[in-house]
Amino acid sequence: MVPVASKLSSKLKSWVKIDDSFTTDGDVVLCQACNNQIGCSMISQLEQHVRSALHAKNKGLQTSKKQVLLSQMQQSSNVRSEFFHDMCNAMVAANIPWYKLQVPKYRAFLEKYCGRQIPNDSTLRKNYRHLCYDEAMTYVRSDIGNNYIWIAVDETTDGKGRYVTNLVIGKLDGKESPTPFLNSSKTLEHENHATVARFVNDGLKVFKKIKYLSFIVMLRRTC
Ligand SMILES: [Zn+2]
Fold it and tell me: What Gene Ontology molecular function terms does this protein carry (predicted)?
């Protein structure tokens, strides 16, 4: 007897052929034009999506994008967009996860009022995340300067039961409330003195260019 899951998987692979924007991993259907997952247990749901105004609009955007000459595409791939870069920084500052750009209504809002093509979250991750990180770390390094620093390491468990460890640092310059910076955050497979020590060492490597780095460790254990 064929399992229900594999039955649906083969159906999805057949159904996605109705539109070249659709792809599937066998579990869900993704519309590449809308950059959106479509709940799908019947082919009529995909047909309904194809008929929607939003899909038609996004297909139009996708088609016009494909019509760009190859030379222009090569050129544009080498030039980073200031708009995308600023969008990265703005979303990070506002604590808006980049995957929210997959929300069709949010994308439509941005496209309507910015009058620009809105990047996919994967584009931001691939091409702009390291720029934002470098800028943030440059700022942290310049703020700390040659001061002594304090560090705090804390771990928490996320909703999936993973050990998430955070390294927070700040400068000791005599002020009562120095700005703390989240230096690094990592999921550790096991949490013990060795893995935490390695995590702290790795996190502090970004300060290797500071000549007079010294630090005082403050440990806090909440469990
Ligand atoms: Zn679509």
Answer: double-stranded DNA binding
